[in-house]
Amino acid sequence: MDGANHSMVSEFVFLGLSNSWEIQLVLFVFSSMFYVASMMGNSLIVLTVAWDPHLHSPMYFLLANLSFIDLGVSSVISPKMISDIFRKRKVISFGGCIAQIFFIHAIGGTEMVLLIVMAFDRYVAICKPLHYLTVMSQKVCIVLLGASWIIGFIHSLTQLAFAMKLPFCGPNVLDSFYCDFPRFIKLACVDTHKLEFMLTANSGFVSVGAFFILIISYIFILITVRKLSSSGSSKALSTLSTHIMVVILFFGPCIFVYTWPQATSYLDNYLVIFDVVLTPFLNSVIYTFRNKDMKMAMRRICSQVCVYRRISEMTKVL
Q1: Rounded Cα distance, 279 and 94, in Å
Q2: Going by C-beta distance under 8 Å and a sequence separation of 6 or more, which residues neighbour residue 199?
Q3: Contact yes or no for 275/70 (Cβ under 8 A)
Q4: Are 168 and 189 in contact, with CB atoms under 8 Å apart?
Q5: Is there a contact between 159 and 105 (Cβ–Cβ < 8 Å)?
Q6: Residue 106 CB-half CA count within 13 A
Q7: Among residues 108, 43, 68, 80, which one has the least CA distance to residue 253?
Q8: How far apart are CA 300 and CA 293, in angstroms?
Q9: Which residues contact 182 (CB under 8 A, 6 or more apart)?
Q10: What residues contact 293, with CB distance under 8 A and at least 6 apart?
Q11: Reduced to 3 states, what is the DSSP secondary structure of residue 93?
Q12: Tell me: the pLDDT tens digits for 153-208?
């Protein structure tokens, strides 16, 4: 089908989450508060790891990049959703809808692969500590990070290539507050059952596959941890529990949305809010307050900032 005639629809209309003013107000306050907190928390982690030389290690390099990706996860959907809550007519352009779909899957796919890389990092650190710095060298970390982004973009582009060929001539109403493949392709003017199954199976398989790879990896690491000394075991268990909590928070809603056969739009929408608003915030909290090195680094930065302020004030007085 010709690219010029692939669509007669220039925009899509969202039905949103609720028509109740009270629910809209709660959603606005909740989403705004956690979006701002998530942006601040993850930005602080990125800046702390970049600033503090004590955190220049493979684990914190990967953690900083996870926080950077979480900034993207929060920003793809949340700003548009928050700005639309009180609007009677919630509209997104065709190009904006395509861009939102692309970044949702590109960033989501990248985070899935990065979480697997972080599990591999913990495996090497715990199971092969003497070879850790050799295996997880700076070059290897950069290559693994680059591979995560490439896989995420390929995953997104592959699915988008099929959806872009569809003709859209109306209707243009999405029973949601954001664009994603399952509802987007249902609006096409042709039979899309096979494509719906393929795209949903693709995202579902990627989510479930990555989740089971991570769970199996952590089970294997936990078995190894049991053989360690009590001090090393407790520290390793603390780190692993943090990673496992992040994995469950991230993959739980994704797996439900893409694999549950009788999922409803209402439930899916609120699970997505949890995934894009609350989970990035919880990730930053989990990695900050359950990590002694991060807390110490943040205290050092606060101390340095206070010293700089005092010096600046003294300079102005003189």
Answers
A1: 28
A2: 159, 162, 163, 181, 182, 185
A3: no
A4: yes
A5: yes
A6: 15
A7: 108
A8: 11
A9: 196, 199, 200, 258
A10: 54, 55, 60
A11: strand
A12: 998 998 888 777 788 887 888 888 888 887 888 888 888 777 877 777 777 788 88
What does the CA dihedral 240, 62, 274, 249 come to, rounded to 10 degrees?
-20
Q: What is the pLDDT confidence band of residue 66, given thresholds at 50, 70 and 90?
A: very high
Which run of H or of E encompasses 69? helix 58-84
- CA 101 – CA 166 distance, rounded (Å): 15
Task: Please tell me the distance from the alpha carbon of residue 46 to that of residue 49, in angstroms, as a whole number.
Answer: 5
Nearest in space to 63 (alpha carbons), one of 217, 290, 253, 220:
290
Verdict on whether the full-model pTM lies above 0.70: yes
Rounded distance between C-alpha atoms, residue 68 and residue 281, angstroms: 12
Query: Counting beta carbons within 10 angstroms of the beta carbon of residue 178, is it exposed (0 to 12), middle (13 to 18) or buried (19 or more)?
Result: buried
How many other CB atoms sit within 10 Å of the CB of residue 230? Answer: 7
